[in-house]
Design goal:
Blueprint lengths: L5 H5 L4 H28 L5 H9 L18 H14 L1 H12 L1 H8 L2 H13 L4 E4 L15 E5 L2 E12 L6 E7 L9 E7 L5 E3 L13 E12 L3 E3 L4 H36 L1 E2 L2 E2 L4 H26 L10 H26 L10 H13 L4 H13 L8
Parallel strand pairs: 1-4
Antiparallel strand pairs: 2-3, 3-7, 4-5, 5-8, 6-7, 9-10
Pfam families: Acyl-CoA_dh_1, Acyl-CoA_dh_M, Acyl-CoA_dh_N
Protein name: Acyl-CoA dehydrogenase family protein
Keywords: FAD, Flavoprotein, Oxidoreductase
Length: 396
């Protein structure tokens, strides 16, 4: 028995949504699922030719504007496709995630028209990728402590600093760099600028050897007085709130990756406990196993519904998501994925601890998605801030 998509199938999908979801499932299953374990074991960066293949199918521009080659579809349609791919192969899903919910969406929604014309067609085609660079050695959850500077000097911007934990770091062609652009304290001095990877002064640290996220490169980035044109400024100082509201779209993509992990772990477990026999009967006949499966299903469906609510509000190219709804969805989905993959490992016993069944890989990836884009702890802080309509000084 396979319950994948039970909740989604209950949603009303139009013909276009159903068609692209079916194509995504077919491509993910036939082309990428067989490669997922190998790419994980060998820490293989996603091949350029495969990214271009995804672009040729239209997957890299589902929720990006039609005038640049995208599909112009609602964000939820892109999330549906991300889930289908992440269910089978996270490195492949990451390409669709980065293009449809990552910094390209920031450019599409709050960038200049010139920036859109310069970067979006290449991203949609798979010719280039864009990554976001926020965290630093001393500014992770405390993002407003960042010290990377972007100084405007006439028609040039000079960028200096060090970014850390950059997904697709050393692999992306362009970086959306959150930078301190004025002497104003805290968030008031922060803006963002685009820095192309081939600019003089851009260099990288060694690729991180992470517990999960294998096949998704991560590395420090160093900016040594990198000069870019002033046209690369996306948000001027004082626009940090706008930047982070736009970043909420990436958090919806993150939540979808977690959702796919939880759904996959649940589906594998449902099949396994009906096939595996102990003490003369299938595992599903034991009440403790039934309770575990029920808890897993409750958590997966709760995460799905919260995600659908948050994504459903993003209706057009300029609409930004509700920050409270995004934090609720991300916190729930991240913790669900960690817990459900752990329960799946327990239900599979020794088999779950082997690489053969793929559950340990899911569990490793689940922890990575919970750390990326704002941890569940930080999401809880944001949830309370949004509920009360006030901020809290964590430095006091």
């Amino acid at each position: 028995m396979n319950m994948k998509g039970v909740v989604m199938s209950a949603s009303i999908l139009n013909d276009d949504e159903r068609a692209i979801k079916e194509v995504a499932a077919k491509v993910a299953t036939e082309r990428y699922a067989p490669k997922a374990a190998q790419w994980d074991a060998e820490r293989t960066a996603f091949p350029l030719e495969e990214r271009k293949y995804l672009g040729s199918l239209g997957f890299l521009g589902i929720a990006l504007p039609e005038r640049f080659g995208g599909g112009g579809a609602p964000l939820q349609q892109a999330l549906n496709v991300i889930e289908e791919f992440a269910y089978h192969c996270r490195p492949a899903a990451f390409q669709i995630f980065e293009a449809n919910t990552g910094p390209a969406q920031v450019i599409a929604r709050i960038g200049t028209e010139e920036q859109r014309e310069r970067f979006l067609p290449g991203i949609i085609a798979g010719d280039i990728t864009m990554a976001v660079a926020i965290s630093e050695p001393d500014a992770g959850s405390a993002a407003t402590d960042l010290t990377t500077k972007a100084t405007i000097d006439g028609d040039t911007v000079r960028v200096s600093g060090n970014k850390r934990w950059i997904s697709n770091g050393s692999e992306a062609d362009v970086y959306l760099v959150y930078s301190r652009m004025s002497d104003a304290p805290g968030a008031k001095g922060i803006g963002a600028v685009l820095v192309e990877a081939d600019r003089a002064g851009v260099s990288y640290g060694a690729r991180e050897k992470l517990m999960g996220f294998r096949g998704i490169p991560s590395a420090d980035i160093y900016f040594d007085d990198v000069a870019v044109p002033v046209e690369n400024v996306v948000v001027e100082p004082g626009g940090f709130r706008t930047l982070f509201t736009a970043f909420s779209i990436e958090r919806l993509g993150n939540s979808t990756m977690s959702l796919a992990l939880g759904q996959a772990a649940l589906d594998l477990s449902i099949r396994y406990v009906q096939e595996r026999t102990q003490f003369g009967k299938p595992l599903i006949e034991f009440q403790a196993v039934q309770m575990t499966i029920a808890d897993m299903a409750l958590q997966v469906d709760a995460a799905r519904l919260l995600l659908q609510r948050a994504a459903g509000a993003v209706t057009d190219g300029e609409q930004l998501p509700n920050s409270l709804h995004v934090s609720l969805a991300k916190c729930t989905a991240n913790e669900m994925a960690k817990n459900v993959t752990d329960l799946a490992m327990q239900l599979h016993g020794g088999n779950g601890y082997t690489e053969e069944f793929g559950i340990e890989r899911m569990h490793r990836d689940a922890h990575g998605w919970a750390l990326a884009g704002g941890t569940p702890t930080m999401q809880r802080t944001r949830i309370v801030s949004e509920l009360l309509g006030r901020s809290f000084d964590q430095r006091g």
